[in-house]
Amino acid sequence: MKQMLTLTEHSQLKALSDPLRAEMMMRLLERPYTGQQLSVYFNLSRAKVHYHLKELEKNQLIAIVKKEEKNGIIQKFYQSVARGFTPSAELLPHLEDINETSRQFLLQMAERTKSVILSAPEDAFKMNKASEDPSDWDYIGSMWQFSAKEEHFKDWIKKYFALMQEFSELTKQDLPNHPDSKIYYISTMAFQIDEPIMEELKSKKEEK
């Protein structure tokens, strides 16, 4: 699976902007599924799931990664072709569709994170000692709000991805079945909003 796929067709944007397909893509980012498995997961008819899978496959967003025979029937397993998607310069005029696709993916990420939190083990949220030092914590849960220039926000994004790449390289040898290894789920979202949510920035804005 590629890390990033550049979307070059308007039809790809339209395919991803559909809420149900966006939710399907979140599942197919995680692991391969058959149409039958997705039908059960979403409680939808196989015909409806098959239609949406074909739309995603036609737009080269998913691919068949393996086939298995069960009771004389060939089962096809689909998976996303990339972990992330970004529009090409040619698609920038279709701003409304780009915005809706991004919104749907962020919504699905938020829903997925919520379900992971609810199913996480009790040990995930343990507190071994009281401390204001983040390095003593076993998990992170925080919300931030800044008034910033766009260039500063983009600089932060660049550093964030560099940090995640550094962490990825650092943990490559930490195999999941190692007795000292734990599996961590990291979900991050950051985007522009119209009005301050937190009182601190509201007050600063009113003072001006």
From TrEMBL:
The keyword DNA-binding applies. Keywords: DNA-binding, Plasmid. Residues 18-61 form the HTH arsR-type domain. It comes from the Bacteria. Coiled coil: none annotated. GO terms for molecular function: DNA binding; DNA-binding transcription factor activity. PANTHER family: SLL0088 PROTEIN (PTHR38600:SF2), TRANSCRIPTIONAL REGULATORY PROTEIN (PTHR38600). This is Winged helix-turn-helix transcriptional regulator. It comes from Peribacillus psychrosaccharolyticus.
